Amino acid sequence: MTATTMAPRESSPHLLVVRNDKLGDFMLAWPALARLKSASPTPRVSVLVPAYTAPMAHLCPWVDDVIIDPGEDAGREAHRELLRTLKRQGFDALLTLFSTPRIGWLGWRAGIPMRLAPATKWAQIFYNARIRQRRSRSERPEYVYNIELADKLVEALGLVAGEPVTPPFWPLDDAVRKRERARIAAELGLQEARPWCFLHGGSGGSAVNLSAQRYVELIRGIERHLDADSPSPHWILTAGPGEEAVAETIREPLELAGISAHRLPPRQGLDDFALSLAAADLFIAGSTGPLHIAGCLDLATAGFYPSRRSATPLRWQTCNTDDHRLAFCPPIEAAEQDMASIDLAAASEAISALLRRLVAEQASES
């Protein structure tokens, strides 16, 4: 790191953390935000996020204030107003988890004294504290890279690091889960005692995913691997804006096959949708925002990833506990994004084993 560590602090610093791109990227920042809030004296943490992810920022227990980034293409006055806002806040430090020249320049013009970011391309010239991470090598999970940056900021500011924060990084009271299960059960006529498997077949426009037909094949395989005396799950299909047709393409053949498959009813915004996921026992998806919401909730997850070096299962690993996580990707000999080459027989066997374990654990707790 290129900045000198400060002497121990007696007052709480005000921090601005920036992760202003996709939903999944922001969810993988929550472990780092939790790490910052565990330091002493406890910092005040503001985040700069796009309007799209702002509802999740407001739900994050590790965030005190939310500032909206108008985005690269906003008009000059919007950018001037953002700069004025940052100057008024009087931040002690800026932590940019994904560095861009615009944000670096913004932090410098706002007069934020400590500015820390990954040492990435020429954007690093605007920062006086930098860490070389080489994230493109995908040697560690994204959320671990973020935690490393948070730890370096804690050290640089002279704060006392707190105890490591462990999953769930979105801790919800069990009453919330019960409320959401009761709500969905009433909407769809489901039995709350049966396992609930949520599946998100969309891609969010940024990630490759299994096709709808392959998801149908996967679910049928999971159902075949379940024991005869195992309770059959309810399958609840989620969809982002414009992805409803994908969910229907999965649901219809399952219903014809006698499998309990339903679409999650529309929700009032991203925050309402995210809270609905707390009702799940298992969440299956590609490497999308909803998968990473489920990871923050420490739900059991099964993710389908490409093998591209910058998008491996390790790099974009969910931040739930190890035994709650499954990941599948094309074999080495296949093309990076050849999702059709993923062995669905092996995936369905592994997912059904995880589901059986979850059911057994819940039975032993009741």
From TrEMBL:
Keyword Glycosyltransferase part of the UniProt annotation: yes
Gene3D superfamilies: Glycogen Phosphorylase B
Molecular function (Gene Ontology), one example: ADP-heptose-lipopolysaccharide heptosyltransferase activity
Gene Ontology BP, a term: lipopolysaccharide core region biosynthetic process
A Pfam match: Glyco_transf_9
Keywords from the UniProt entry: Glycosyltransferase, Transferase
Keyword Cell division in record: no
One GO CC term, this protein: cytosol
Official protein name in the record: Glycosyl transferase
Organism: Halomonas urumqiensis
